[in-house]
Design goal:
The protein is of the alpha/beta class and about 325 residues long. It is built from 12 helices and 8 strands. It has helices at about 25-30, 45, 80-95, 130-140, 155-175, 180-195, 200-210, 215-230, 235-250, 255-270, 280-290, 295, and strands spanning about 5-10, 35-40, 55-60, 65-70, 100, 115, 125, 145. The structure holds iron/sulfur cluster.
Length: about 325
């Protein structure tokens, strides 16, 4: 797979673009995830023409449509930022991004819970950074996360799983459109979808089953939208344990009573959050290879992202 293109707030890459001339280098993003992605840096404040260093800014007014104002001299930068952002998102459309990582707490780049000050100077954490809002309105289905959330291992896994899945989907889009291609993609992703939501698993199964009745463009659009929605829902030990047990059913004939007991025990220990997901997954992967189980062999769920990212190694 070629590298995944991700937009990112420039300061997270260690560039000295912040108002105080500093940066917010995030080593997980540069050193670890950086091995698999190609970053497209975006610094709204510098790219809209503000200097480094510069006066700090914050949001003021109505949390739904706040103004971007300098903290001390009270210059209103909103129009300048909005005009630039509207042009920038058009450029970014050509980049084929599979996601965006925003800097948290920034009045320009933050994607949620940004402080908005009322007329008395009291902040409420209900705002969205001016650029982040315009970006997310333009690309509502694109995975977006802030770097603060990516320190939470569950949210990290969820985001990375979504960008890898979107990349695989984009590869499907480079092929000639066809129902067979979509069905093949869906078949490979069934258990991954099930681990996020049995409801979406059923809904997507129904959509694919009536694929012949839907014009192909519409089918692709609907499928992509539902896929991204489904993967946004969090997995849980309970949901994963159900998928693992479902997979176990494929080895009913081959496994001895003792092997079945062992696998069930490992799944149960995972469900109780005593051992990490990677343990039952490794055992099942072993049986898939040993017995060459054709359906499971194709399941992305067993290998959704590089092992080196260690996303399934935590309890
Ligand atoms: S938070 Fe956004 S605007 Fe601020 S320095 Fe980082 S990239 Fe630039």
């Amino acid at each position: 797979m070629e590298k995944i293109k991700l937009g990112i707030s420039t300061c997270l890459l260690g560039e000295n673009v912040r108002y105080d001339g500093g940066h917010k280098l995030d080593r997980f993003l540069t050193n670890t995830l950086g091995g698999y992605v190609e970053y497209v840096p975006v610094c709204p404040e510098v790219e809209c023409g503000l200097p480094i260093p510069r006066e700090s800014m914050h949001l003021e007014g109505n949390p739904d449509s706040p103004r971007l104002v300098t903290t001390h001299t009270k210059q209103d930068m909103t129009d300048r930022m909005v005009q630039w952002a509207n042009r920038r998102v058009v450029e970014l459309e050509k980049e084929d991004l599979c996601g965006f990582i925003f800097k948290s707490d920034s009045p320009s780049s933050g994607m949620e819970r940004i402080k908005v000050h009322n007329e008395n100077g009291i902040p409420v954490k209900k705002g969205v950074g001016v650029f982040a809002r315009i970006f997310m309105d333009r690309f509502p289905l694109l995975p977006a996360e802030d770097e603060g959330h990516l320190h939470d291992l569950k949210l990290r896994e969820n985001f990375i799983e979504r960008i890898f899945t979107l990349k695989r989907w984009r590869e499907v889009l480079t092929k000639k459109e066809g129902r067979g291609t979509l069905v093949e993609f869906h078949t490979r992703h069934k258990l991954l979808i099930l681990s996020h939501s049995p409801k979406y698993y059923q809904m997507m199964g129904k959509l694919v089953a009536k694929a012949k009745e839907i014009p192909i463009k519409e089918l692709y659009q609907q499928y992509q939208a539902i896929l991204m929605e489904a993967l946004q829902l969090k997995t849980s030990p309970k949901k994963n344990a159900n998928v693992l047990q479902h997979m176990m059913g494929y080895f009913r004939e081959q496994l001895s009573a003792d092997e079945k007991r062992e696998l069930l025990k490992v799944i149960d220990l995972y469900r109780k959050e005593i051992i990490p997901l990677i343990v039952p997954i490794t055992l099942i992967n072993h049986y898939v290879r040993k017995y060459e189980q054709p359906y499971l062999k194709k399941q992305v769920y067993l290998n959704p992202h590089p092992l080196e990212l260690q996303l399934r190694n935590h309890v």
